[in-house]
Amino acid sequence: xxxxxxxxxxxxxxxxxxxxxxxxxxxxxxxxxxxxxxxxxxxxxxxxxxxxxxxxxxxxxxxxxxxxxxxxxxxxxxxxxxxxxxxxxxxxxxxxxxxxxxxxxxxxxxxxxxxxxxxxxxxxxxxxxxxxxxxxxxxxxxxxxxxxxxxxxxxxxxxxxxxxxxxxxxxxxxxxxxxxxxxxxxxxxxxxxxxxxxxxxxxxxxxxxxxxxxxxxxxxxxxxxxxxxxxxxxxxxxxxxxxxxxxxxxxxxxxxxxxxxxxxxxxxxxxxxxxxxxxxxxxxxxxxxxxxxxxxxxxxxxxxxxxxxxxxxxxxxxxxxxxxxxxxxxxxxxxxxxxxxxxxxxxxxxxxxxxxxxxxxxxxxxxxxxxxxxxxxxxxxxxxxxxxxxxxxxxxxxxxxxxxxxxxxxxxxxxxxxxxxxxxxxxxxxx
Length: 431
Description:
Elements lengths: L4 H12 L8 E6 L12 E5 L15 E7 L8 H9 L2 E12 L1 H12 L14 H10 L2 E9 L10 H11 L8 E8 L9 E7 L3 H10 L6 E7 L6 H11 L4 E6 L5 H9 L6 E4 L11 H9 L5 E5 L12 H18 L11 E4 L2 H12 L7 H10 L4 E5 L14 H20 L4
Parallel strand pairs: 1-2, 1-3, 3-4, 7-8, 7-10, 8-9, 11-13
Antiparallel strand pairs: 4-6, 5-6, 10-12, 11-12
Helix pairs in contact: 6-7, 10-13, 11-12
């Protein structure tokens, strides 16, 4: 029952998929692991870590994501390597570091002595705490850290099944062999980025004019109004606004399907801003508050800003008791999965960087999950791909015109199914 090098690297390759869907990525690999890493969309550089004089040279290009496989485990100067790589990262770029779990290090040495471990497998006592300390000193912050692959044995073909079960039920414990840590380069520069505001609108004729008039006059801002089939003249009014309003660049069109999520996905495909905001058309959130959301992104404090309605006191009649109860439940459950303390996962106001769009569509295509509102898809895709998420409290108000289009029990049931499926995605092996 040897520890399978093949099994381990198959799982390792799958784990790295989540970080490759970016504007630009490079994968730096220890030469000894060359034949174990599958082809993917990233640029690859192989380093001979057995050569103590080896310098890491990846050219002058800047990357959104740099991934290290079996590099720091073999290095005598982690500080120097991270210092070099820092120069090749874009502002707020991500450094994905794999390291051996210290809980496994002792076990690994025992397996080695018993001749139960592949001799080519790389392990060391370079743990995540050491790496975090060094990276922090070089201007990085730790966004997330996960431990994967508890049982990397073939065991007559059932080892993968055992691994899936163990990872699913022991997700709260860091027993996996490999730790995958996402470090985000902190930039203090105050950016000025182009913006897109997505407004899904169905039966919102009475709200649209006020909503558009109250949106701050952001420079270089695109406003997308994606309309559902309405009983009123929402679409006609949106077209009229786009014709006469000169404050923004407008796109107005009918959505291809049904539901808010579909309207959001249609809008993301034609969005042009470097920052994207999703704003409900019912004016339950003051449009003026978008300034604060954008400011958090432009000051590089986060990659994704999630609105929360559950901090300030709500306006009377804005949310039913059963909705508050459901939100509290989902807040607790989701926080456990994505390991980010959220207070409100279903707030419709969300702002994020454009580079998340590719990751969202990859998440949906890969795992085939359906969220009727899109909130879970956005949050889970952001977390799964290593984005830094922050919350911003908004003042939640009752809608002035029309009525909610949410089916509380039907949609609630869909969200519960979504949660359990995504729980498995986050915490169980895919092999």
